Amino acid sequence: MSTHFDTDRDLTISRVIKAPRALTWRAFAEPELFAKWWVPAPTTLDVLELSLRPGGAMRTEMRNDGGPPEPHMHACILDVEPLRRLVFTTALQSAWRPAPESAIMITAVLTLEDHSDGTLYSAHVMHRDAAARQVHETLGFADGWGTVAAQLAGLVEGMT
Amino acid sequence: MANNSRALDGVFQALADPTRRAVIMELGKGPATVSQLKKPFRMALPSFLKHLQLLERNRLIRTSKSGRQRTCRLETQTLAAAESWMSQQRAIWEARTDRLEALVTTLQSPESSS
What we know:
The complex is a heterodimer.
Chain A: E1 10-17, H1 21-29, H2 31-37, E2 44-50, E3 57-63, E4 70-81, E5 85-89, E6 106-115, E7 118-127, H3 129-138, H4 145-158
Antiparallel strand pairs in A: 1-7, 2-3, 3-4, 4-5, 5-6, 6-7
Helix pairs in contact in A: 1-2
Chain B: H1 2-15, H2 18-27, E1 32-33, H3 34-38, H4 45-57, E2 61-66, E3 69-74, H5 76-83, H6 85-108
Antiparallel strand pairs in B: 1-3, 2-3
């Protein structure tokens, strides 16, 4: 199934990675590798579950400065074509159970294609516009920069 | 776009510090001189100047010298970019892609990793 790109709510990122597709896929499929790139240091990620099948869970916790684990992501895998494509959403949890109202709901389509220099990685991330506004308000953009800035750091560190 | 996102990363980093946030908030009221901005802080001037330099490097503020006084003002365009939720999301995914690329490239040639 192809996806439609909505300029207002979607973003896409493409990058040629100088490594074979099979190797790149391991960074999605192996929990210990996934944990190494999904969030930026010094935040660390604990991958509790990564079941690459439709309805499977993508469940992670994060730690800041070696502190206690904090909730991070509980997403539902929607589609998997091994070595080629991974689709997941945070609008659902594992086994297709609707997620609680949360600030950020996304569906992400991550694809890998062969490229003469290695692998073409693309991410198509779809956002719910209402969620965008909600986050914006939650972060207190209207309240002045102190609130904004304090929250921004956290946002960049941890969120999906 | 990659450069844009790196610039945004710098902005967030600059805003992650309480002193620099306080400076930004103060400048939100209007331009101010370095000595006016420094007043509420007990740190030494060189340390304070480092904060200002970081803000300037990340284009959050602009400074200009007139006589013996250096005046700082906000770069509102940079702040507006950082304020855009979508820009933040892009910055997050760009940075994530950087890390994916670095990881996989390292796996590809483990002997060249440190």
